[in-house]
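3-isopropylmalate dehydrogenase
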Amino acid sequence: MSQFTISVLPGDGIGPEVVREALLILEQVAKNFQHTFTFNYGKVGGVAVDETGTPLPQETVELCKNSHAVLLGAVGGPKWDQETPERRPEAGLLGIRKALKLYANLRPVTLFESLIHASPLKREVVLDTDILIVRELTGGIYFGSPRERRQGRDGLEVIDTLHYTEKEMERIIRKGFDVAQGRKKKLTSVDKANVLESSRLWRETANRVAKEYPDVQLDHMLVDNAAMQLVRNPRQFDVIVTENMFGDILSDEASMLTGSLGMLPSASLGVGGPGLYEPIHGSAPDIAGKNVANPLATILSAAMLLRHSLGLEEEAASVERAVDLALEEGYRTQDIGSEWERLLGTAQMGEVVRSYLRSPIKS
């Protein structure tokens, strides 16, 4: 029997609903495999602004640092659109990533065969899609300084700074190579080296690191071409490594290969400390509280938590298998369903997935 402490940050909008289903899955896994999971709750995002005046209270940071892993729902919503930058919910998400030194974001883009019809692309284009996007998470234009708006000669002018060090580039590129070695040994590095100096250093760094991984095929691709190729021929990709903003945009685009943002999990990893796991979708305040949100991305994020932070491979696979079986049986939420399928609400979909969870096979 193993004991683990998991920090839970439900956040805003549909976050609490989808996180609840993921926690019920984790509780069932603990029962099936004789583990003990302790869940400690914290506040982040808009709910934290409302209750504490800041999107990331220090007690939340300490809670997360003293856990084995962090499960997060979603942050944000129009309610907080007029807040100053430091009080916007998204600042809480960026802040917790920075506080935990989570530099690598892993976003698997896997098409379940039973959901091929949900993709807006043709069957022959998306069939067998299985991509892992490795995104740098703590540098780039999202964190660069200065970042400001000011009065200029011709009115307001704004500055956003794209800043990277070679060391930051090297560690995420190396992570991409390490991941590629465990898959098909093919890595596509995405940049904008024809325009940006940062991308030219990125490409030079990737070529240098590649010499240490002779068994991995390295290709370079400009980000605009990568965006086109993702919808033209996604099967050409296996592992994609890229900087922060490019990874953010490309992974959201790639979600359409699977038919819905509600199907894509993510893991944010650092060195030695707890990882943070969250669905890549937003808080969807328009459907919050209506029991219609798709919990599968959060459930699959919980599977990644089991695998990457707790080292529980069999347990993670059992969750992924349960999701696959539920989909094969035709169970759907409204974002991936059609009128002839078994449309379920958030809680009902979670219950179905739990019904397919299996205990370890006894010898």
